[in-house]
Amino acid sequence: MAQIADERGATVAQVALNWVLAKPGITSAVVGATKPHQLADNLQAMEWTLSEDELARLDKVSETQAPYPYWHIGTVGADRKEPGDVYPA
Fold this sequence. Notes:
Blueprint: H1 2-8, H2 12-21, H3 36-44, H4 52-61, H5 70-73
């Protein structure tokens, strides 16, 4: 997130809010602004959106390995999975 924020001249909080709100089924986000400048920063996030490439980059680095037994189920048959393979979200 920091790299994308630097590339865009935005804050990490703005990137995070954009990313969360770009997820299917997400209609709102709860922010914890306690100071006026934090609220202003959060609101600035609504003035732009992440590109498809940026969304893909964030999705890639946030992938998690499927817990057992799910990664193991795919090791039987043609759809072989290996321990450590990520499970699609």
